[in-house]
């Protein structure tokens, strides 16, 4: 669906489509664990977040050069634009690349080559959000923030992703304090597989302005009330929830009840190459399976701009 929208929850490494993965593997002499794109698509049957992450980290090893990151981001921006995305706040996972000897400069400069030309080429404005891997140590996160020092003019904020359970937000208190002192905006994944308490911690300990996923807030009525009162945006990803089995079926997704409760929900694609669709596909899916009417879809689109890091003038122009 091509209603103008902002995408606020999108991992750029999760936009690596099988065709591009094989093309980059050939270009860089990297061997992939699957023989061809069909075998790869077969591997996209996930049991949970971890089984997805295992493939996600394995496939991203094809990304080696600035040009690879540029090609990846440019392909995403073209697809997003075709589905009505006018503004994208894009996550990237530097630790997954630094660990393979791919430098911060290669990643950021490569992404920037695509992002820098995006308004002109695709009509999509962009921001970059650097995520810390929560299953790595707090020290590693702090070293990553240090490594980003020379590129901070290109990075709008920090986020927290990867395996959630057992890695509560409080583990990253100091690195979020350091990020705030540098003027970076703050978001974090919380309440995808982890409990509602992680959402509260992300707000109170990390000072996040948005919660990525936040789905499990529905288990705690007092938390829902707080999120409504404080107008905390939630970046939901319905197709991701189905594929990672955080909900049983799309028809059973709590989005309609969340909107009825007054939560500030947005709809996003998370890792579209893996979960079966880009931003517009997620809008189409919730419209079809949940019977959301035009009013609700307009609300979701409006929320996406309100919850973005665009200032008011920029948001008006993007819409
Ligand atoms: N959840 C947590 N970490 C991630 C995801 C996700 O859906 N995608 C990429 N990293
Ligand atoms: Zn995510």
From TrEMBL:
Keyword Zinc: yes
Entry keyword Zinc: yes
Superkingdom of the source species: Bacteria
GO molecular function, one term: hydrolase activity
Span of domain Adenosine deaminase: 4-316
Residues with site note (Important for catalytic activity): 213
UniProt entry keywords in alphabetical sequence: Hydrolase, Metal-binding, Nucleotide metabolism, Zinc
Active site: 192
Co-factor remark: Binds 1 zinc ion per subunit.
Signal peptide: none
Record family assignment: Belongs to the metallo-dependent hydrolases superfamily. Adenosine and AMP deaminases family. Adenine deaminase type 2 subfamily.
Function field: Catalyzes the hydrolytic deamination of adenine to hypoxanthine. Plays an important role in the purine salvage pathway and in nitrogen catabolism.
Protein name as annotated: Adenine deaminase
């Amino acid at each position: 669906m091509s209603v103008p929208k902002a995408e606020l929850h999108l991992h750029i490494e999760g936009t690596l489509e099988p065709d591009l993965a094989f093309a980059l593997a050939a270009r860089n002499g990297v061997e992939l664990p699957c023989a061809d794109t069909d075998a790869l698509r077969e591997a996209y049957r996930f049991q949970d977040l971890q089984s997805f992450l295992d493939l996600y980290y394995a496939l991203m090893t094809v990304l080696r050069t600035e040009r690879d990151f540029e090609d990846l981001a440019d392909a995403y921006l073209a697809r997003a634009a075709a589905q009505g995305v006018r503004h994208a706040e894009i996550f990237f996972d530097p630790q997954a690349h630094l660990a393979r000897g791919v430098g911060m400069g290669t990643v950021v400069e490569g992404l920037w080559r695509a992002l820098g030309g995006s308004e002109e080429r695709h009509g999509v404005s962009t921001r970059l959000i650097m995520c810390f891997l929560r299953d790595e140590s707090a020290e590693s996160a702090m070293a990553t923030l240090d490594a980003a020092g020379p590129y901070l003019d290109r990075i709008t904020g920090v986020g927290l992703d990867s395996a959630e359970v057992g890695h509560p937000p409080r583990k990253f208190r100091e690195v979020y304090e350091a990020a705030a002192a540098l003027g970076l905006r703050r978001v974090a994944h919380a309440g995808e597989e982890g409990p509602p308490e992680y959402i509260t911690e992300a707000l109170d300990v990390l000072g996040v302005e948005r919660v990525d996923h936040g789905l499990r807030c529905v288990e705690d009525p007092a938390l829902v009330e707080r999120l409504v009162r404080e107008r905390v945006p939630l970046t939901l990803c319905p197709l991701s929830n189905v594929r990672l089995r955080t909900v049983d079926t799309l028809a059973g997704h709590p989005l309609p009840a969340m909107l009825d409760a007054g939560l500030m929900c947005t709809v996003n694609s998370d890792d579209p190459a893996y979960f079966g669709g880009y931003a517009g596909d997620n809008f189409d899916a919730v419209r079809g399976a949940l019977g959301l009417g035009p009013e609700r879809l307009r609300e979701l689109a409006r929320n996406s701009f309100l919850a973005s890091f665009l200032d008011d003038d920029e948001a008006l122009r993007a819409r």
